What does this fold into?
Amino acid sequence: MRYGRTQEILYELNKIKDSTKDESFINKYRLLMETPVYVDSPLAISATEVFKDNEDLFDDEVRAEIEGGDNPLEFDGLRFTKTVEESRALNESGEPCIIISASGMCDVGRIKHHLKHNLWNSNNTILFVGYQAAGTLGRRIVEGAKKVKIFGEEIAVNAQIEYIEGYSGHADQEWLMNFIYSFIQKPKQIILVHGEKDAEQELKNKISEETHIPVIIPKYGEIYNVQNDNVYLEGRLELESVRRIQKIEILNKVKMLGDEMKDMKDILETDILTEDTKEDEINSISLKLKEIEKLIVSIIE
It folds into this structure.
């Protein structure tokens, strides 16, 4: 989760858990009010500590709640899982609970372990509260995939999948248009540099039609010069610069694969290579690892 989003959700959950005056509300949300909440993300836990250390910077409403004894970041049933062992224990426990785990588009981190252990169960709900980029595991789940591969194992998606866009760190089209309308003196030119291709084109069309402001969507490697009211294409990156960027991207992918390998090692140790593992399963894993080894060798040869 992005910085601040976890704390926003904890704030909302605290309001539910603290609603003890309305009997009809209690009856409707009694189970939710009694359900433990686990924050299972080292970064989110660290960010929460930063929030706690700077409570004097909260707005008047939240400060008043804290002074009244109701800290939104501290409530009954809220627990922080700081170690890997504590995180694993969540997947071994059968108790109903809410797990807030950093997504990272669901491609790396603890969230993959939680998905592996919970996606198949129709009693569970997976709630996405942030943008999922195209091509990622999270995007495939949000778009309705019936099966996904996690750590090389095919997992059925039987859990209820929900998505709340309101917590996303990305402004939607409406808010971007509102931002443009808010200028007293309208921009002379707009350059769109972040977003999916189709969404960028749709936004460009909307801006052009409604505001008549010229819009540019730069192509990869193009260099634009912005001087006063003038924007013009100055040139394109030289081939060597493009190659340097591509090299950085490759190294980043290698790092991500390294994280994946570490996750796979943990899964093999704790979930797969147990005393009950059959010989044919061990042989199958061994063959797959040999295939991976061959691919790695072929890349670096």
In short: The radius of gyration is 24 Å. The domain at 5-167 is CATH 3.40.50.10890 (Rossmann fold). The chain is about 50% helix and 15% strand.
